[in-house]
Here is the input.
Amino acid sequence: MKSRAFIKRLIQYQKERFPVLQYILLIFFFYYGFYGISKHFKGSKLTFTMESVIGAITVLLIFFQLRLFDEIKDNEIDSKYMPERAVPRGLISLKEIMIMLIVVTIMMFLLNLFFGLSNLIVFTLMELYIFLMGKEFFMSEQLKKNRLIYASLHMVAMSWIGFYVIQQAVGVSSLRLQHILLIIISYITGFTMEIARKTEAPQNEREGVDTYSKLVGYKVSVFLVITLSVVSVLILLWMFGFDMYAGIIVSFLAIPIAGAVVFLAKMNKTGSKILENSASVYTLAIVVFFFIIAARNL
Here is the structure.
């Protein structure tokens, strides 16, 4: 009965904090977009190997691991300022979160044991960084005094995930400039989504909840979302050239710009959500674009 009750609570938890079906779709395009385009830049075809399937499952579990680390790290603040969230209200206990974190981490290490030393080293280094990030690099108070540095360090995890995927596609020894730029793209798009997710209208700011709009002002936050999106597009144009794909790549900018315009016009919760979703859709558009380019060579 206890196991059934736990499964029921876990299903509700994932609905609220980690919607699995939504993540599976996003991770499929994220993984195979980066995986396929990495092969494309090496002159190879996109292939659906057992290693790539294990890699995609690993990336899904990494994002779940990051969510679990956040639950532990933010528990004190959530309990005080957001008691409606799953852990503070008792849907899932902190002990259960820790147990799931251990199980997920062991599962990922077991999955990555059999795909070569290079892959295992990259995976281990990535996990080490994520662990340090979960512990806030053992300098929590110092980092929280500068939220931009704090966030910048956290977004490096996205670069590690991008690197993990890319090295599975081409190997560390075969990395080219385009692959390095892909790692930078993963960082920038991750940061874009993070800023958009934490931008609120002034009247909707909550005590104890850190947002970029509270830190630098909502106008600067919106400016950063657009600026980072433009930087991503410029890198993509350099990577793919200013010819047949240029129009498609530039058109991606319409997504975050539209989100920013709606947010500035509405200045309410709905506008904030639209801005957040626009950054997510913008990132999804990029990885789907990568996947389509790579899939054309199947």
